[in-house]
Amino acid sequence: MASERVYNFSAGPSMLPLEVLEKAGSEITNFNGSGMSVMEMSHRSKVFIDIYDEVKSNMKDLLKVPDNYSILFLQGGGSLQFAMAPMNIMTTGKADYAITGNFSNIAYKEGKKYGTCNVAASSADKNHTYIPSQSELKLDSEASYFYYCDNNTIYGTEWKYIPETGSVPLVCDMSSNILTRPFDVSKFGIIFAGAQKNMGPAGVTLVVIRNDLIGHERPYTPIMMSYKEMVEKDSMYNTPPCYSIYILGLVLKWVKKNGGLQGMQKMKVERSKILYDYLEESKLFKSPVRPEDRSDMNVPFVTGSDELDKKFIKEAEAAGLVNIAGHRSVGGMRASIYNAMPIEGVKKLVEFMKDFELKNK
Predict the structure, then answer these.
(1) From the CB of residue 331, how many other CB atoms can be counted at a distance below 10 Å?
(2) Which pLDDT belongs to residue 4?
(3) pTM surpassing 0.85?
C-alpha cells in the first residue's frame, strides 16, 4: 500500500486537485458552520440551495453559457445521455453520428433504437487513430442533430475543430475534455459531460441545452429522462447527487483560481507537449495516433511487445505512477493527464520512461 499520494493516470474516475480534497476533508463533518456534512443535509435546505446556486453560477461564468441555454446537473453518467438525447430531440426520426471511438459507437447503437441514424463519419477503418475532417462528413440536412464525442479516452484522439452542420444542432459528449479550453457554447445544441474526469467524482453529469430543443420528447419518455421536466424542476425532480455537486463546486473555484479555461488550456498544452515530445524522440515507445489528432487528455502508447508493456506497467506502479495500463480493448499503456494532473506528474512519468528505455534496449 502507498504511504503517500501517487500520480494517478486513470482515465476516470481520475485524480482531483489536492487543494479540493483538503478543503472537502476540512468540511466533511461540518460544512460552513451548519453542523452537518453536505452528505447529510436536505437538498431542499437553504444551505444546500446556496451551494447549488453558486455551482450553477460558476459553471455559467466559466463556460460563458448564453442566456438561451439551461444548465442541468443530472445522474446516470454520460451513458444515460446516449438515450436521453434521441428520446428528447430526434424530432425528424433521423440523426447523424460520427463514430470515432468506443463511446460514440455505443451512442450510435443506442440512437438507432429511436430512429434512423446515419454514420456521417467513422474512423474505424484505422482503428480510431484519427479524426475525420470536415470535408469527410456525410451530412443529412434532415437530421435532427449531429452527434460526436469530442475526446476519445480509449483511443486518444480529440476533435480540433467544431463541425459545421448548418442548421442541424450539435450534440457533443465532452466528458473527457470539458473545462480544459475555451469554446463557443452557442455553436452547440446540447453539451454533456460526466464529472469523473475533469470536474469531480462520479455521480453527477453536466448537461447544457439550448432552450428551443426542450419540450419535444417522445410521449413514452420516462419523466426522469425529460429535459423539459428536469429544466422545470432545476435538476431536482428527485434528490440530486448532492455531494458530487458540492465537490464540483470546489473544482470550479479551483479552476477560476488557476486562470479559468485559459489557464487550464495553458497547462494542458504544457503537459501534453512534455509527453508527446518524448514519444517522438523515443526508440522504444510509440504513439499510435495521427499527430494532428492526438488528445491532450488521454495519451496511449506502446512498446510493440506485450511482455514489455506488462513489465512497464508493473514497474511504473511500483514507482508511484498508477493506472497506466491501456484500455483492455486496445492494450498497451495510456496516460490520462486531466486538469488535476500536476506538471510534475508528467515529468516524473517521462523520466521513468527514459530510464525504462535505457534498461530495456
Answers:
(1) 14
(2) 87
(3) yes
Residue 335: domain span: 259-359
Residue 229's φ and ψ, nearest 5 degrees, are -65, -40
Q: How far does CA 57 lie from the centroid of its chain?
A: 20
What is the structure's pLDDT at 1?
A: 52
Tell me the C-alpha distance between 174 and 151, whole Å.
Answer: 7
In one-letter notation, the amino acid at residue 80 is L
Of 257, 281, 312, the domain-final residue: 257
Question: What whole-number distance in Å separates Cα of residue 34 and Cα of residue 36?
Answer: 5
Separation of alpha carbons 179 and 160, rounded Å: 15
Mean pLDDT by 10 residues, the chain (361 residues): 84 96 97 96 97 98 98 97 98 98 98 98 97 98 98 97 98 98 98 97 97 97 97 97 98 98 98 98 97 98 96 97 93 97 98 97 81
Domain boundary among 189, 223, 257: 257
Residues forming beta bridges with residue 151, ordered by sequence position: 158
- For position 340, which CATH number holds? 3.90.1150.10
- Is 171 a member of any domain? yes
Task: Evaluate the omega torsion of the peptide bond into residue 241 and state whether it is cis, within 30 degrees of 0.
Answer: no
